[in-house]
Structure formats: structure tokens, C-alpha cells
């Protein structure tokens, strides 16, 4: 089966689907499934725009609303995870996943589904350690803190995914798993993105939570986005006592959706030819949701997941074959996800703009139906109850300011650092609306074509065993393997024009006429800098 993988979409659905159609015609292939690795921007109206954590000048409606209204329909089944530039109020309606538009499915805070026998999992958002141990307490209208914390990964989602025992074929995250850069052509990555060097060398670039999942799940494929550069890696995992054969993961990160960028790749994935064409629930995942339902938390209090040798009476929430069979019986062995998309907000009308539209906290009928069917807690309903009791959100903005990438003043965490995957200033990340014509920062890769649909060997060059600690030797000798690939023409090297004028600090002039240095706040505070400031 042909699967297309896309990087950050940024709401440009028309552009994404047009590019996909072009690739299909050019290579005479038919794509069966499109996966998007975050920053999808499912913006329905002006209220949704106000819930995106970007400066107002970058809040563009883009084209998702046409698919939401029914004016257009996605030409291929599309499944996505959330990133850090999303209409968080919209995605919050579907914490367990659901349809954001006909033929476009969101995986939720974390989720697992099946398509043609292929098991697809994912986790939404980016990692920030100071929010990692909190519950999902945010609700619209957001304040300056919760508009950011709403998309931060929580430990409960990682805990749920770690209960899975059955193999995962494909996994998606927005930010990269920490240390994955040690398993690809790191030299070429740093040539393309030199401002990553400090974090790569200190092994702090990327999400430690995603790395933990990568170690545990060992999926066949892992796809990410976020850093706006195309990068491939191949990781061979250590065998555990229950495995008969060693497992390996093929990692691929995609660029953002702009002309002249490698933001789409078509890959051949083995599938079950006898399986239907419908998106399906995953029985083990549903069983895990049922088993962990008592752990749902909608407060901003920090808390730890149950752990072995801890104070918890129960720490293992993995499910038995009997529990999985019970789920199958509940569904009468029909795992097809119902096509029950419904409009829950007014759709943008270009002829009647409503600039003062306020976001509201909505409960989506899809979530209500899902929770009722499987006996789960509707997180938004619980938040509504807690709001009435005054026990959520509260004085978050007064008690806690957005932390920078050092994680200063944060509460204790199992992770020692607070990098969301990009704490350095990324010149490429700043210019969301740039056309990319004169600065192609995409890294080496194999063109998506029927000639190389599943041949990752050309892209995944650095094969190493992942240690338990995720620490990797500083020996970069294996980067030389890509030099041979470059000579053979398989790897395409593209020169990057480093935008040196984008500084980490901004010059300000005080009342006395003296210049002073003012730090630009890190990503999530003002991810996009004004173009005139850049110049």
C-alpha cells in the first residue's frame, strides 16, 4: 500500500493535496493514505485563529475551512497528530481522536488506529517538562499561558502508549525523539541546520518522552516534523528477553508545506490485502483506555504515573488477551470507526468576516458517543464540572510564567531538561509564510518515487544499537557512509543560506539613548518574528 507522509501542513490543505496529486501523476501511483505529522491547523473560523499560539500577523485562515464546511473533500484518507501551532480549541474537542472533517481524522492527544491491517499510533503536541506531569486542565478562551500549555505533551498519554504490547507498524510525533540525530547523517544535518549543533552535541535536541516511546514501542516506521528539515535515520534496537528477532526503526522527518520543499514522501508499506478500506479502531488501544480511565486528571497539579516499586497498589496497566476480546465483543467484531463527523462551530465565511468571534469550550458529539460506548471519561465534560467547582485553570497565569528552554524554576521532573525539540532560534521556523524559493533548507533524501518507495537504505545511513540510556557515543565515524551515497548520486546535497541577521538577541534603546540587549523569548512565546525585524 502506498502511504504519503507530510511534514508541517500549516493549514495549506489545498497546496498539500495538489502536490500529492502531482506526485501521483508524475510517478503513476495511487496513494491510499496520507499521514501528517502536526501543525495541521484545523482552523474553522476566526475564533479558532485566536487559539493558535502565534502572533496575530501570522494568523491566516488558510484552506482547512473549505473541507470543514463540505465545500471540498479530502481526496485521500488523511490521519494527523497535533503540533504546537494548532487551533487547540478545535482539537481539544476530540481528546480521544475523531473526524475534524470528512475523510480527515485526528488521532487525539494520543491514539492508535488500523488501516488495511497496518497499525498506526501517534502522540500530539511537543514536550515541555514543566507541564509534562499536569493534567489536561486548559479550556478556551485561553490565557497567555494556557494557549501554549494546551499543546504540551502529558505523562498520562506516554503512560498509556507504554502499556501496548502488540507491534506498532507506524508511529507519528510532532517533535523528534531525542537522540535520533545520532542514527542518521548528523554531519549533513548540522550543515543544513548549524544552529542545532549545541543541542545535538549536548544531546538535548528533541523530546525525551518521544525517545522513551521509541525505545518501548520499537515501531517499524517513525515519522516526525517540527524542525522544518528533511532527515532520515535508521535505528536498530537492543533485543529484550521476549523478542525472537531484533527490531529496527526507520525514522523520517519531513519539511514544512511550501514550494521547493521536501514536505511529502511516498512510501510502500506492507498491508493485509484481505482487510477493508475503512479506518478502524485498535482493540488493544481501546482496552488500554478503559484500563487507565481512572487515571484521568483535569487539574494543573503535578502528579506521577504509577510505577513499579512505587507507592501505587497497581502500576502495570497493560491489558490481557481477554480484555481485548471483550472490546471486540462490545463492537461485535466490527472495528470500523463510524463516519460521524458533525459541525460544532460556525464555518468561516470570506464574505462576512467576524473578527471579534470568541472561542467557546465545546463538547463534541463524537467524543460523547465514543465515551458512552466504551465507558470512558469525557475529559471536556469533566473540565466543565471542574470549572463549576473552580478547580481548573485557576491562577495559572499568575503562578507560573512560560519557561525558557533551560527549564528554570520548573518543578522536579523525571526529565532533567526542558527542550521542546527546538530551543535554539531556527531561522527556517520563523518564516511560516515564506515561499522558500531562495532558501531550500531540506536535507538529503531519496525522491518520493515508485523507484524508491520503500528503500530506506539510501537515506538511513547510521546504523547503531540504541542503549537503554539513549546516550550515544560521540564517535561520528559512521557519517562517512553517506559520502559514498553522495558520490553515487543517491543523496542530493543542497546548500543552505544561513540567515545570520536573525539574532538570538534584539537591540533595544533605553531612554538615555544607550543601546541595551533584550533577549527574544524562546519558541512558544513568539515563534514567529516579524519580517521587518529580521531585516
Automatic annotation (TrEMBL):
<keyword id="KW-0507">mRNA processing</keyword>
<keyword id="KW-0378">Hydrolase</keyword>
<feature type="region of interest" description="Disordered">
    <location>
        <begin position="387"/>
        <end position="458"/>
    </location>
</feature>
<feature type="compositionally biased region" description="Acidic residues">
    <location>
        <begin position="430"/>
        <end position="441"/>
    </location>
</feature>
<dbReference type="InterPro" id="IPR029052">
    <property type="entry name" value="Metallo-depent_PP-like"/>
</dbReference>
<dbReference type="GO" id="GO:0008419">
    <property type="term" value="F:RNA lariat debranching enzyme activity"/>
</dbReference>
<dbReference type="InterPro" id="IPR007708">
    <property type="entry name" value="DBR1_C"/>
</dbReference>
<keyword id="KW-0464">Manganese</keyword>
<dbReference type="InterPro" id="IPR041816">
    <property type="entry name" value="Dbr1_N"/>
</dbReference>
<comment type="similarity">
    <text>Belongs to the lariat debranching enzyme family.</text>
</comment>
<dbReference type="InterPro" id="IPR004843">
    <property type="entry name" value="Calcineurin-like_PHP"/>
</dbReference>
<dbReference type="Pfam" id="PF00149">
    <property type="entry name" value="Metallophos"/>
</dbReference>
<keyword id="KW-0862">Zinc</keyword>
<protein>
    <submittedName>
        <fullName>DBR1 enzyme</fullName>
    </submittedName>
</protein>
<keyword id="KW-0408">Iron</keyword>
<keyword id="KW-0539">Nucleus</keyword>
<feature type="compositionally biased region" description="Polar residues">
    <location>
        <begin position="414"/>
        <end position="426"/>
    </location>
</feature>
<keyword id="KW-0479">Metal-binding</keyword>
<dbReference type="GO" id="GO:0005634">
    <property type="term" value="C:nucleus"/>
</dbReference>
<dbReference type="Pfam" id="PF05011">
    <property type="entry name" value="DBR1"/>
</dbReference>
<dbReference type="GO" id="GO:0046872">
    <property type="term" value="F:metal ion binding"/>
</dbReference>
<feature type="domain" description="Lariat debranching enzyme C-terminal">
    <location>
        <begin position="235"/>
        <end position="380"/>
    </location>
</feature>
<dbReference type="GO" id="GO:0000398">
    <property type="term" value="P:mRNA splicing, via spliceosome"/>
</dbReference>
Amino acid at each position: 500500500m502506498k502511504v504519503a507522509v507530510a511534514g508541517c501542513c500549516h493549514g495549506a490543505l489545498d497546496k498539500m493535496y495538489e502536490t500529492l496529486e502531482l506526485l501521483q501523476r508524475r510517478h503513476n501511483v495511487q496513494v491510499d493514505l496520507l499521514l501528517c505529522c502536526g501543525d495541521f491547523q484545523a482552523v474553522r473560523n476566526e475564533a479558532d485563529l485566536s487559539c493558535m499560539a502565534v502572533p496575530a500577523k501570522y494568523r491566516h485562515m488558510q484552506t482547512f475551512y473549505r473541507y470543514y464546511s463540505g465545500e471540498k473533500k479530502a481526496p485521500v484518507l488523511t490521519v494527523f497528530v497535533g503540533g504546537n501551532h494548532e487551533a487547540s480549541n478545535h482539537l481539544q474537542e476530540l481528546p480521544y481522536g475523531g473526524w475534524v472533517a470528512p475523510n480527515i481524522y485526528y488521532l487525539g492527544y494520543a491514539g492508535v488506529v488500523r488501516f488495511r491491517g497496518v497499525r498506526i499510533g501517534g502522540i500530539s503536541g511537543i514536550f515541555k517538562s514543566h507541564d509534562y506531569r499536569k493534567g489536561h486542565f486548559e479550556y478556551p478562551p485561553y490565557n497567555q499561558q494556557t494557549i501554549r500549555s494546551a499543546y504540551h505533551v502529558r505523562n498520562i498519554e506516554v503512560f498509556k502508549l507504554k502499556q501496548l504490547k502488540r507491534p506498532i507498524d507506524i508511529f507519528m510525533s510532532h517533535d523528534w525523539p531525542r537522540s535520533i540525530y545520532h542514527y542518521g547523517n548528523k554531519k549533513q544535518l548540522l550543515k543544513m541546520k548549524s544552529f542545532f549543533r549545541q543541542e545535538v552535541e549536548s544531546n538535548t535536541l528533541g523530546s525525551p518522552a518521544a525517545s522513551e516511546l521509541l525505545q518501548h514501542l520499537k515501531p517499524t516506521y517513525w515519522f516526525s516534523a517540527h524542525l522544518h528539515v528533511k532527515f532520515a535515520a535508521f535505528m536498530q534496537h537492543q533485543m529484550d528477553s521476549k523478542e525472537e528477532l531484533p527490531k529496527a526503526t526507520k525514522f523520517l522527518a519531513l519539511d514544512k508545506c511550501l514550494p521547493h520543499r521536501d514536505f511529502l514522501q511516498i512510501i510502500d508499506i506492507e498491508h493485509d490485502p484481505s482487510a477493508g478500506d475503512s479506518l478502524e479502531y485498535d482493540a488493544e488501544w481501546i482496552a488500554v483506555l478503559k484500563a487507565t480511565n481512572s487515571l484521568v486528571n483535569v487539574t494543573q497539579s503535578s502528579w506521577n504515573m504509577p510505577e513499579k516499586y512505587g507507592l501505587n497498589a497497581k502500576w502495570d496497566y497493560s491489558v490481557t488477551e481477554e480484555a481485548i476480546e471483550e472490546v471486540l465483543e462490545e463492537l461485535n467484531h466490527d472495528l470500523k470507526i463510524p463516519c460521524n463527523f458533525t459541525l460544532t462551530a460556525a464555518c468561516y465565511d470570506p464574505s462576512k468576516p467576524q473578527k471579534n468571534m470568541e472561542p467557546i469550550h465545546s463538547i463534541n458529539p463524537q467524543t460523547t458517543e465514543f465515551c458512552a460506548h466504551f465507558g470512558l471519561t469525557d475529559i471536556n465534560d469533566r473540565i466543565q464540572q471542574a470549572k463549576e467547582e473552580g478547580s481548573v485553570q485557576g491562577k495559572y497565569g499568575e503562578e507560573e510564567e512560560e519557561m525558557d528552554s533551560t527549564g528554570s524554576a520548573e518543578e522536579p521532573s523525571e526529565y532533567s531538561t526542558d527542550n521542546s525539540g527546538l530551543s535554539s532560534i531556527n531561522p527556517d521556523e520563523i518564516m511560516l509564510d515564506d515561499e522558500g524559493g531562495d532558501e531550500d533548507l531540506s536535507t538529503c533524501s531519496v525522491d518520493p518515487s515508485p523507484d524508491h518507495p520503500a528503500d530506506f537504505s539510501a537515506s538511513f545511513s547510521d546504523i547503531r544499537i540504541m542503549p537503554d540510556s539513549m546516550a550515544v557515543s560521540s564517535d561520528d565515524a559512521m557519517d562517512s557512509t553517506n559520502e559514498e551515497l553522495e558520490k553515487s548520486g543517491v543523496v542530493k546535497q543542497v546548500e543552505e543560506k544561513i540567515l545570520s541577521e536573525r539574532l538570538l538577541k534584539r537591540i533595544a534603546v533605553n531612554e538615555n539613548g544607550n543601546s541595551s540587549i533584550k533577549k527574544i523569548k524562546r519558541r512558544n512565546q513568539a515563534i514567529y518574528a516579524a519580517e521587518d525585524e529580521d531585516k
